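If you are new to this repository, start here. Below is one unmodified record pulled from the training split, so you can see the exact layout before writing a loader.
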Amino acid sequence: MAPTWFKLLIVAFLIFALFGRGRISDVMGDIAKGIKSFKRGMSDDATADADQKAIEDRAAATIDAKAGARDTPRAAQA
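And here is the target side for that same chain:
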């Protein structure tokens, strides 16, 4: 027994009658804020991951450069 448009209209009317226009718009606004916050959090995570990768790459390059300097004899450095 699938819901028909008439049944959905009745349910929508009852919800509107119980909660009123103001409450429904508040709930929808809260849902929209939650979605925006979630998207912002996901983009912040992607940015944080990229920043962390850049920091790790710089640290690895510094370690490699220091290791290369230690391997070179002092006479060759002067």
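Two things worth knowing about this chain: The chain is about 90% helix and 0% strand. The radius of gyration is 30 Å.
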